[in-house]
Amino acid sequence: MLPEKLSWFGAIGVLVGLTVTGHAAGIEADKRLLAESERVISPIMTVMEQPPGKVPSRDVCDGPLLGNGDLGAVISGPPAAQKFWISKNNFWRLKDGHRQGGPRLFGGLEINIPALSNASYRIEQHIYPAITISRFTNAACSVTMRSLVTATADYILVELSVEGSPVDVETKLWAARGRGSKESTNRNDNILWATKAFDQDVLIPTAAACASTVVGEKDPVFQLNPGHKVTIAVAMQSNYDAKEPLAAAQEMAKSLNDKKVKELMEQHSAWWRDFWAKSLVEIGDSFLEKTYYVSNYMIGSGLRDKDFPTGLFSLWVTDDDPRWAGDYHLNFDYQSQFYGLYSCNHIEQADTYHAPILAFMERGREYARKVLNVRGVYYCVGIGAKGIDTCKQGNRSNGPYQMGGCFMGQKCNAVYSVIPMSMHWYHTYDLDYAKTVYPFVLEVANFWDDYLRFEPAGMPLATNVTPAPPVAVIDGVPVDKLPVAKLPAGRYVIYNDSIQENSGTDVNSIMSLGLVRNAYETVLDMSRELGVDKDRRERWEHILKNLSALPTFQKDGKTVFRYTERGTEWIDGNSCGLQHIYPSGVIGLDDDPKLLEIGRNTINAAGRKWNSDNGENSHYPAAVRVGYDPDIILAKLTELWAGSRKMPNGMPDTIEQC
């Protein structure tokens, strides 16, 4: 019997489906969903009436975002000099070290139209067809650009048309100069091409190439005449797409003609129609509905590569030295971009999550063994694709570093990484998925089996906890050597675990208590359904039953959740003290009313903020899960998205807020 845990992760997401029976009825339901999604979503667009001011950027950028989950582009520049900044999820510098590895900008396409100097500026992003329409107008002419990244192949297409006077158009393709990269550009007939590679002083060499063409034209410089449309195309491939990226990109560009472009457009339209029909929401609030769908557009455009999911700044990397390496930050930044995908039925995008987590397992085992002398996996804060350690600093072992890895005093990075796996499992009960991720979930359980300290009832917390607290002894036998059946009444305690980066030797971080509980419930459920590790379940069940209680304290005359049992009491404006509620799911609406009241008190407490930067993805669902007034939640959400959390391009501030 599968557990009833699906409701754990249902906060805020509203998924509307049509339930019918029979093949013919199923076809009709599909048609109805396609029609309804087009009705609801097709009017939605974002508008920019001045060029973006934050492109390029070392972090998030504010220009129009285009993508197909693998190839991405950001538009910038004035009407006369439009730039498309090109990136690809699988183009990284794969090297260990602080500011050494991470996703990298490839380069870009320039479309220069001198006649558009002094032109007005308007760019509309129509999210249902995933097409961006740019209109630039002055007294002499009006040029329209229809831009997209095709959904089913790695092309950027820009269709140009003009009204009024003809205009001269020049296209350029360039590769961005990078730290340690090799670049080249050239031309073969009407094909411009550029390459960029990291093949020196790296763990794994990488390379990529772009090739551009003006479909039906003989030259990258041409005249655009009224009544005639011209399509500029860029094809891109990396060494993870083709053995010879340049040859592959050139062939893609050469193969384009009007018929091929039409086929790509039809495939693009069909893919996005299907995407939107998977998650249809109407709540009678057009503003919040638009926010929901724009966030889904960002996810659909950014996430599809199963080996190279997006990092801190999603697909759109516009600098060769992104902040925090643009990597996978595991103290919830990386995980949080996946929270909403399961309840809104975008499993294809969610399925990109686990590859880098699994790829780091061997290094995690080494850290666990050498740093903490335990089994399982111990993950640092920042990791990259293909198992690279993006924050490693040699063998440094002071401050936030242990054996060169940056841990910030936290033990939670690996157990936090179980959260999206749990969500995926409880929303799909996909046994093949469970088989894929179970080895990691098991290693997380191995870590906590060893790291948790069992303390008999009445035993005070240890004071000497460096490097680790002593193990309790009963009748001359350490408790970690006793079988579960012989353990006395007691509890499991988490020592030396900072709830916030570098917050000290905290004991029983409320965040980790929630994460550990989720991990053990997940490993137990997967173990039962996969029919493995039956002999381990007794201890896992004992840990779940006897894990330390959630700490509380009095604040402003009310009982609220304390951030830790000993150590950090409270942090204003920080969501870590709510993350046991969501995403861990330790508390829900069917729980003890006293716990729910404590949760609401915590939401209300002085210092708790509804605009808590990247912690909002926990704060709002947590408020739902403890039964907070829904009218207030919606009002606060509206206030949030009407202000600080919307970029000039109409998109969420970061991928974590989708």
Give a concise summary.
The protein is of the alpha+beta class and 658 residues long.
What does this structure look like?
This protein has 658 residues and is α+β, with helices and mostly antiparallel strands. The protein has 16 helices and 25 strands. The chain has a 9-stranded antiparallel sheet, covered by helices on one side. Strand 21 (473-474) and strand 22 form a beta hairpin. Helix 14 packs antiparallel against helix 15. The two termini are 34 Å apart. Residues 6-23 have low confidence and may be disordered.
Assembly state:
single chain
- Give the biggest sheet: 9 strands, antiparallel
Strand order of the largest sheet: 1-6-7-8-9-15-13-12-11
Structural class call reads alpha+beta
What best-fitting shape do the alpha-carbon axes yield? globular
User: How much strand?
Assistant: 15-25%
Helix content: 25-40%
In the predicted model, the low-confidence regions spanning at least 5 consecutive residues are 6-23
Could you tell me the number of beta strands? 25
Number of helices: 16
Average pLDDT figure: 93
What's the end-to-end separation, in Å? 34 Å
* C-alpha-based Rg, rounded: 27 Å
Walk me through the topology.
Blueprint: H1 23-41, E1 45-48, E2 65-67, E3 71-76, E4 81-93, E5 102-112, E6 120-126, E7 131-137, E8 141-149, E9 155-164, E10 167-175, E11 182-188, E12 191-198, E13 206-214, E14 221-224, E15 230-238, H2 245-254, H3 258-277, H4 286-302, E16 328-329, H5 333-336, H6 347-350, H7 355-359, H8 361-372, E17 382-383, E18 401-402, E19 405-406, H9 413-416, H10 419-428, H11 431-451, E20 453-456, E21 473-474, E22 477-478, E23 490-493, H12 510-530, H13 537-546, E24 552-555, E25 558-561, H14 593-604, H15 616-625, H16 630-642
Antiparallel strand pairs: 1-6, 2-3, 3-4, 4-5, 5-10, 6-7, 7-8, 8-9, 9-15, 10-14, 11-12, 12-13, 13-15, 16-17, 18-19, 20-23, 21-22, 24-25
Helix pairs in contact: 1-3, 8-11, 11-12, 12-13, 14-15
